[in-house]
Design brief:
The chain contains two helices and no strands. The protein has one domain. By secondary structure, it is mainly alpha-helical. The model has no long low-confidence stretch (mean pLDDT 86). The longest helix has 15 residues. The protein starts with 7 loop residues before the first helix and ends in a 5-residue tail after the last helix.
């Protein structure tokens, strides 16, 4: 799997949004929400 480098500021925002959850799981949820919200025709 590729590695994504983010700024310290963005990492802290992601960590805060995860609210104690596993960061990988939180990121997949964020990706899913983004895709559902940005898919034409849905």
């Amino acid at each position: 799997m590729p590695t994504i480098d983010v700024s310290e500021h963005l990492y802290r925002q992601i960590e805060s949004a995860a609210d104690g959850e596993d960061l990988d799981a939180a990121m997949w949820k964020m990706v899913g929400r983004y895709q559902r919200g940005n898919t034409p025709g849905d």
